[in-house]
Structure formats: structure tokens, C-alpha cells
Amino acid sequence: MISDNSTIVPPDGQRNATRAAALRRLATLILVAALISPALRNEDGIPLSTYPMYAATRGNVSSYVTALGVTDTGANRTLSTSTIAETMDWLIAQSFLNDAVARGEGAQVCRQIAGRAPEGLTAIEIATERHDTVARLRGEESLLHRNVHARCEIRS
Amino acid sequence: MTAQLTPDALRRPGWQLFNRLDSWLLAPAPAERLAVFRILVGSYATIAMIVSVGEFARLADRPAVQFEPVGIANLLEGPLPSTALWGLFGLSVLSGFAFTFGAGFRYTGWVFAACQLTWATYHASWGQMLHFEHLVTLHVLVLGFAPAAHAYSVDAFRRQGSVEPDTRYGWPLRLAAIITVVTYALAGIAKLRIGGVEWLNSETLTNHIAYSATRMDLLGEPRPPLASLAIANDWVLQPMAIASVAVELFAPLALLGGWFRRAWVPSAILLHLGTLTLMFVFFSYNGLGFALLPLYRLERLVPERVRAHFASSDAPR
């Protein structure tokens, strides 16, 4: 289309397409900026994240909050994630125990777990254990220290 | 005086690069490509939501003191009442099916995207950031606001008309591809920023593998199948550490397509299989390949017979 002063004027469709393309370029830039912004701010969140999973270095000695069953002979027996925290996800189960001990709710959580415990157990213990994890995988003794936060009996 | 783009200026490398990027970003694509992405991502997200029913039940009973809101959950004053949480579950599943089948997509698209964002945020608001839900949430958000049901959908069947390839179908896929590769690159950057070059030593990976295996032992779960073998043959771990960081950092090269994509995609899948067999850490959306779908011409996944059927039913009457 040519206007009176002989400059080329794009038709409406073309003008709309140009505007849409410019908006898409701008939106893309905003999206990329948003995606990398958590890394610049060093602030993890959702849905935008720094994705710090397993990013930290780690020594061979680690502490774990554990929930173990105790049998009538005094032996310890591990419990499933569903018994511990009613979940199939071990990340959630571990976080459940960590949070409980951090809040000083070990005894309360101990009683909850005792209510879900399988047969053959006489007590539940919530403890923090330090292990040499690499030694454990090599089949060697790994437990370095154990601190029991709570113990609760299971009533039959 | 206005700046003019002379033929010489247009031949400059910087301008050529911009043009190539621009052409890639705004390339038209068939509606079928975006539709196949919608169906696959919608299926994954809806099934994942249904499988999460146990998590909904678990969170419905959690005491308020354990609520640590993140993201949009900060708008809440406390945990959702259990009826609201189950309402979210019901709406998520219903809108997830509608999203996948492309029914009433003008509304169900963004409703499901909002449900997915709300659930992922609420799920992560109990003291454990669950990074495996980030990418699928971002992809559902892109799809939910895109014209992703103009083909292979209930809406398209009702509308009865074919659509031409267009930038509006290609651009959302480009955004999804950018999100995928930036996500990987950020994970690689985090390792170097937080762990430093020590992350490239075999020691860090050894300790991560041993940490995960011990955690599984103590939680009464089986150990990752290759954990003990890798620790016994620890010479493999340094090359694996370097390779895993390289796969993450160089993910954006996959956008170049061709050889780069052909090399990167299997490497990324291998990385996820590695974390699964060594640490029982599996990001299923990534490891099963859903996250990598926007790098491909997905309409080719549809058998010719099905394509022909839809082409004939799409023709205007």
C-alpha cells in the first residue's frame, strides 16, 4: 500500500505481525531474565530456582536423623518411609524427621510413628546418627556416634 | 537522521547472529507440533497429579506449625483446610484431563496451569524444596497460555477447520526449549558456585553417592543398585563428575540442533540414569525425556494413519 506522500505503509496484517513479533521477543527476554534471576539473587524458590540439588561438596562423615524400631531382644530395625512419614518419598521422610528434631518435637513424632509401627517391635527411637558413609558402602562399620532424642514404647 | 541498515551492516557477524536467533525463535510451526507437546506433557502432569493422591492425604493432616510457605503460598496465612486441598486435587485432575484432551482449552489450559503451580508450590511449602516439580510446572504454564489445542483436540474436532503453520505454535515450543536448557545450565552453575572446582574431583561424587546409599539404608529402603560397585571402582567417578557438570553447563548448545542436540540429549538421559542407579535420585520428567520434547519436531511422532484421519476430519465442510 502506498500513501499520499509516497512512503511505504505496511498493511494492517503485516503491522500486527510485526507488533506480535516484537512482543514475543520482549517476552522471551523477560522469561530468560526471570529464569536466571534466582541465580543472581542466590535465592531458591518455586517455580524459579537456582537448582542447588547436590551442588555442595560433602565429606565422608554425615549425620542423619533416624527413626528405628526396637525389638524385644533390644535389636534395632529400620522402618519404611511410609511408617515414618506416611510417604513413599525418602526425601520427604528424611525432611520430616529433620524438621521434627529441629523443632524439638522428637517425642511427639516418636508417638506418631509408634502408632504406625509394624508388629514385632516394642519401642521406637528417634536419634541422630553420625556415619562414615564411604566405609559403610565398603562393608565396614560406619556408626561413629548416636544421640537418642526420644524413645517411646509401643503398647500391644 | 535515522539509522539505516545497509547491506554491509546486515552482513556483520553480530547482526547475522541476531537474525539467526530471531529466525529460530519466531519460526512458524504446525499446530500439530504444539498439540503433541500438550498431549504428552498434559498426560505426564495429570498422571503425576493422580499418583500424588497420597501426598494430598499426607498434607491434609499436617499440623500448621510445620507449614513453611514458599512462592505464592506466602499469600496464605496458614495451611489450606483439608476440604480446599481436596478441592484442589479434584480440580487439578479434571482440568488436567481437559488440558490433555484439549477440551475447553481456552479456560482449562490456564486453570490446569494454575492448579499445577499451586500444588507444586504448596507441596514444597513443608520444609523440603522439591525441585523435580519445577520444570513440568514451567512447561504447563507455557502451554496453558498458548494456543495448544488448535489440533488433535476436542476443541479442534468441534471447530472443524485446518490451521496453517504459524509462529504462535512455534514460539511456545521455543520458550519451553529455552526453559529446559537454562534449567540444566543453572544446575551446572550451582555446582561450580556452591561446590567450586572440588565438585569435579571424584571425592565429592563419591561422598554424595555414599551419603544417598546410607540414607536409604537408614530409611529401610534398598540401596541404589550401582552405588557399591561405583565406590569399589572409584576411578570412574572423576570422569563422571566432569561429564555431569559439562552436560548441565553445555545444555544451551542443544538449541543449535543437529549434531549438538544429537550428542546432548542422550548425554542428559544418561546423566539421569546415572543419578537413578547410583543415588536413587530420578527426575522423572527429565529422565523419561518429557523435558526434552520441545527440541524435536513432535508431529512426526504421530503415525501417518492418525495424521491422515485428523487431516480429513479437520477439512472445512
What does this structure look like?
- The complex is a heterodimer of chains A (156) and B (317).
- With 156 residues, chain A is α+β, with helices and mostly antiparallel strands.
- Chain A has two domains: 1-56; 61-153, no CATH class.
- Chain A has five helices and four strands.
- Chain A has helices at 12-41, 81-85, 90-102, 106-116, 133-137, and strands at 61-70, 76-78, 123-132, 143-153.
- In chain A, strands 2-1-3-4 form a four-stranded antiparallel sheet.
- Chain A is elongated.
- Chain B is an all-alpha fold and 317 residues long.
- Chain B has two domains: 27-159, no CATH class; 180-296, no CATH class.
- Chain B is 64% helix and 0% strand.
- Chain B has helices at residues 7-10, 13-25, 31-51, 53-60, 82-101, 105-123, 134-144, 154-159, 167-195, 202-218, 227-232, 237-249, 258-279, 284-287, 304-314.
- The longest helix of chain B has 29 residues, at 167-195.
- Chain B is globular and about 60 Å long.
- The termini of chain B are far apart.
- Chains A and B meet through helix 1, strand 1, helix 2, helix 3 and helix 5 of A and helix 4, helix 6, helix 7, helix 9 and helix 10 of B.
